[in-house]
Design brief:
With 273 residues, this protein is α+β, with helices and mostly antiparallel strands. Strands 3-2-1-6-5-4 form a 6-stranded antiparallel sheet, with helices on both faces. The protein has a domain of 149 residues: Beta-Lactamase.
């Protein structure tokens, strides 16, 4: 009878130990689960941080590439603008070279001959082909009659060679002041009155005016005046005047020389008779 309580007591103690082992095991499993969950959280956080850093790196790299692309595009635009400017300048330089060549040829032609008719022909070609005048007249001053004598014209009736009085408006001003006259819109204006040109250029030897070039209309393709036009006007004002004056003087001297020579021949024939 005394042994049964001892056995029950040991059995109860064993049961208590077993229960404590069971509880310890349960707590251990919970702690293990908690630790595993924590490890998973840490791994996920690490992965997120890594992905965030990697994303930021890619974003920074993309931003850098965009900046480089924008810089290259800006540089390309600048180069394109410079090329366009160079092309325009090249066209301008080429045009100026052509104009200078034309002016050189015109100047050379004016002084290449002393034949009066040839000089007039060259002057007319310059006015028509280089300046683009359609109707015009070249007139020289006749001091005795105080009028301008037409020596060549194109497209306008000069009253069968009748002179134009110097004391009439635009032409008088040009002769007196020695400065070119341009109407408000000469390229798109036309005049039929010989005394009222739309452009009037003085023919000058130094500061002495010997005549004028009066223009009354321009060719349809003429849309405006360029720098070379004004240079040609200046060339005509000086070089054409000199060429015309020199050729007229040469022609007069030649005629006088021929007259004197014929007279001497005649005297020589009479002396031998």
């Amino acid at each position: 009878m005394d042994k049964e309580p001892g056995i029950l007591k040991k059995a109860d103690e064993f049961l208590q130990i077993f229960k404590k082992g069971e509880e310890f095991t349960r707590n251990l499993l919970k702690e293990n689960e908690r630790l595993r969950f924590r490890i998973a959280e840490l791994e996920e956080a690490h992965t997120q941080d890594f992905n965030t850093a990697k994303t930021k790196h890619y974003e920074d790299h993309i931003r850098m590439l965009k900046d480089e692309i924008e810089a290259l595009q800006e540089r390309f635009r600048r180069v394109e603008t410079e090329n366009r400017d160079f092309s325009q300048k090249y066209v301008i330089v080429e045009e100026e070279n052509n104009n200078l060549a034309n002016m050189y040829v015109a100047s050379y032609q004016l002084h290449s001959t002393l034949d009066y008719e040839e000089v007039l022909k060259i002057v007319l070609e310059i006015i028509i082909n280089l300046i683009g005048a359609k109707k015009f007249s070249v007139m020289l001053i006749d001091k005795k009659l105080e009028e301008l004598e037409p020596i060549a014209s194109e497209g306008i009736d000069m009253d069968n060679g009748a002179g134009i009085s110097i004391g009439r408006g635009v032409i008088e001003k040009v002769v007196m002041e020695g400065e070119s006259y341009f109407s408000d819109d000469p390229v798109h204006t036309e005049s039929e009155d010989p005394a009222k040109p739309i452009v009037c250029i003085p023919l000058k030897i130094k500061e002495h005016v010997i005549g004028v070039i009066a223009i009354y209309s321009f060719l349809n393709q003429k849309t405006g005046f360029t720098n070379v036009d004004y240079e040609l006007f200046n060339l005509l004002a000086g070089h054409a005047a000199t060429a015309i004056f020199s050729s007229r003087l040469y022609a007069r001297s030649k005629r006088e020389f021929t007259t004197i020579q014929n007279f001497l021949e005649l005297m020589k024939v009479k002396s031998t008779q």
